[in-house]
Amino acid sequence: MFVARHIAADHKDLIHDVSFDFHGRRMATCSSDQSVKVWDKSESGDWHCTASWKTHSGSVWRVTWAHPEFGQVLASCSFDRTAAVWEEIVGESNDKLRGQSHWVKRTTLVDSRTSVTDVKFAPKHMGLMLATCSADGIVRIYEAPDVMNLSQWSLQHEISCKLSCSCISWNPSSSRAHSPMIAVGSDDSSPNAMAKVQIFEYNENTRKYAKAETLMTVTDPVHDIAFAPNLGRSFHILAIATKDVRIFTLKPVRKELTSSGGPTKFEIHIVAQFDNHNSQVWRVSWNITGTVLASSGDDGCVRLWKANYMDNWKCTGILKGNGSPVNGNSQQGNSNPSLGSNIPNLQNSLNGSSSG
Amino acid sequence: MSGTKPDILWAPHQVDRFVVCDSELSLYHVESTVNSELKAGSLRLSEDSAATLLSINSDTPYMKCVAWYLNYDPECLLAVGQANGRVVLTSLGQDHNSKFKDLIGKEFVPKHARQCNTLAWNPLDSNWLAAGLDKHRADFSVLIWDICSKYTPDIVPMEKVRLSAGETETTLLVTKPLYELGQNDACLSLCWLPRDQKLLLAGMHRNLAIFDLRNTSQKMFVNTKAVQGVTVDPYFHDRVASFYEGQVAIWDLRKFEKPVLTLTEQPKPLTKVAWCPTRTGLLATLTRDSNIIRLYDMQHTPTPIGDETEPTIIERSVQPCDNYIASFAWHPTSQNRMIVVTPNRTMSDFTVFERISLAWSPITSLMWACGRHLYECAEEENDNSLEKDIATKMRLRALSRYGLDTEQVWRNHILAGNEDPQLKSLWYTLHFMKQYTEDMDQKSPGNKGSLVYAGIKSIVKSSLGMVESSRHNWSSLDKQSDIQNLNEERILALQLCGWIKKGTDIDVGPFLNSLVQEGEWERAAAVALFNLDIRRAIQILNEGASSEKGDLNLNVVAMALSGYTDEKNSLWREMCSTLRLQLNNPYLCVMFAFLTSETGSYDGVLYENKVAVRDRVAFACKFLSDSQLNRYIEKLTNEMKEAGNLEGILLTGLTKDGVDLMESYVDRTGDVQTASYCMLQGSPLDVLKDERVQYWIENYRNLLDAWRFWHKRAEFDIHRSKLDPSSKPLAQVFVSCNFCGKSISYSCSTVPHQGRGFSQYGVSGSPTKSKVTSCPGCRKPLPRCALCLINMGTPVSSCPGGSKSDEKVDLSKDKKLAQFNNWFTWCHNCRHGGHAGHMLSWFRDHAECPVSACTCKCMQLDTTGNLVPAETVQP
Questions:
Q1: Full-model pTM
Q2: Nearest 10 degrees: CA dihedral of B808, B811, B813, B814?
Q3: Which CATH superfamily is domain A161-325 in?
């Protein structure tokens, strides 16, 4: 069903994130080598690196694209405690003729005192906004009031999550029935059994983000979180990468039933939970319709999940991380290395220890 | 290596070999088994590798530690530290004529016998071997030997000579070390510092010490308990790991006073700690009696002194096998590869994966990054083995103009791929609705046309209490059944169900014929039967049995059918009502259910879920009384709404109910495409303005945009504006005259001027009023084209390099293009411009603006503008 193709990335260290632009014709990668690379897809379908530059003075954790109506804009975040906004400049040099594009830093967001672990642009209909989260447990929401001037970003909201944050996801729904919403995951590994996923919703009356929900059942460190593209559904789907893959649905309880002004109430259901990755799950990503979920985990595999018409989720594909096909017997078996399975009290996590 | 706990080592240079040592040394060769079968006698290490035993060496008893000679050696030269403190050089090679021949068997003997704890070859001078020994009050514990030393002191203690087997071997005894360090102390672990050949880091009894061989009287040391397993990070030579009990300490040699960090303590004592040689900052640790290897991924280069950032450490664990692990070894060159050995000497070879990050592109391909590599994976387009995802389906359907056939509406299900029965039902429903709305409008304009789109539920409601039943004779049978008199509404319902055609004629004949033609024998027979024509039903079944694709069993069914008797207690009745449940085809099943039913109770037909909704509803319209029918329709509607079954649109029509139904369909499938097109087929405006409908439309348009199906999006918008004129965007751009400030467009006089609409983009060239060389308001001439220097509004002359010279060809593609050449265009940035055709041809070979001294790169300013719509690329 799927065929993998290797692309020479030429990063000098581990790649931490891959991100596509709105049309899927451009891609950005970021790495521990402190650089970001931008790739353009040729008409023949090959990827060409058209820009590569040093962005931070530490590992770059994440990179993300703004909607093209705001221009060709990227945001990156790093271990160096900053996030940065980048814009492509054309016409100032002959770069284009050499097949290279030129990116300039528009702003550096320096409010965090610790590593900035994730950065995400808000859905287009909210304007040019972005959210960052950091290891000190604070989600920050910035806005560029003037889309023509990307060097001006104002810090609009600071949400304290009380736990070291590892990932954020905006609810992409543009329906007027849904308020802006952001989900935050924490990779805090201390043995307290606190819930690691919190969901904040914007309240029109107070003009603040307030906690709408906490997923009490998720108590293990969370490495990634992703709302599915809403695609006209009446509910939201949230995928979580923790010690397993989990998929939740959040159905807003009709407004007229709740007291107006308060946060939206949700009926939350867990619709799938898979431990096929054996141990930690690192990333989750939805396809454009929110119908296929891809996850990666400690078993070194990429797995694809899809629901049938009965809303039963199943694995529909397995790919090895190095692109080689998966043999039939590789999923179980004693002779094969399986990563950290069935050991209780596994404490795999970011920030496992930090003394000194 | 007390015989029970084997250790394992990869050869530093011959990377397909490793040694397992417990009481003896066993050399193995690793082979890939990807393309070959497992050879006899070889041990499986992993899915795709196996090991073969090459040789065994049991010459050296009492082994305590082993170290592999670091230079390339075909002989597999090993240093073995023994329980008596002697270090013996031994080999696992078969070739005894090599240059190492002299070395093999050489022994290095300390003055006082005690256990040898550790060995370390100098990475720079391959002849130097450091040995760490237990404490002796009169002796040193760190001895550095030169393996090429020929020097044997004259006074060889007699007992040592006796120990060795023969006279010849006395020449192989070396008793004088190059250096002696650490008097009256114990040495537990050793490693050479790569910074300098003469720096040696040793884990002594209660401290870590750095010995400088250039000046042996001095040493740098720090008191600590973590003295075991000292090892230098191969990527950062100042970073060192050591351990004590369950705790690993990481040291920075530049600030040696205390560990820069200690890792979370393990409940059991550690036995081995090793840096990955192929990847920065990855430390593997193993504890006693454990089957997992714990990995610490230190994401950061040690920062210069003074910066107090906390390093980010990702802790992971791997479980290579179910047994406890005795020891492990990183592969010297293969990325992140490791081999482990268990106490009973089973081995396993595996690779530690990097954390994979991944992303879906809007077109169905997945990109992921594993380590430093990128992989792209695309779904194969022509793969039919698995059901395609809705994203792929919608893309293909958009390309095949799904939803846009507004004349033969039913054809849309064929455009959708003719695979989904629900879509088929939906588009037939919409087709009939459209047909009968037009019909109604013709007959009595403004009367019931809107009712048709409201669905059968509303149609049936509107006819409440006007129908009486009458008994009808079965054709060619002596039986009567209650059939409802068909009023106008019921006829309309039957028409929507497709049973009867347009006109007042209530004959199902044409419908039966079309079913027979499509080979739906069973369904046709059932419909014939429901119309009380059992002879026709039998005839149809016979026809089906004799046709090529037909099932011979249909003859049997026909036979059973012909035996119909009206008698209540007959054997036929009894058998049919039980055996019918075994029929696979739902239509055959309901035929017998109908025949065996009591008068007026048709639940066997009405609630057979496998029968198409339209047939069940048509049946209900024929046989149920008004109140029954209402209840039935109500119930079925709710069922359909709940399930999001598109067949139910027949009942709900394009009403609020229909939106509810469509909402559960979208919730279930994500198919906003069908939802949008369906609602745009003929919904009244208030339904169309429903927030949900607008939201589906918005989502679908957004999808088309993301796929760069801009032409499809534009077509969709045109289609949409037919039903919802308010969705038509207002004129976006006006060109105003430089002098009078009025819009230069003639057509603008009819459109109210939108605010401050003076702006940037212009359209002219409509053939009827093509000559506009001056402002219609003030008659001042329009600006000139930067290339031809003629006022805008004059028809363009052919441009050099342009493709077409004659613009007055027929209504062809060329003509359309030629007219585009007349358009005003200019650059937002430098505000220079001219005729579109001229501009395009200029920028075909120029990067900069044609106006003198303007260096604006007008054509490159917009990245999205350079993207090509995907439809033109698609086949």
A1: 0.81
A2: -10
A3: YVTN repeat-like/Quinoprotein amine dehydrogenase (2.130.10.10)
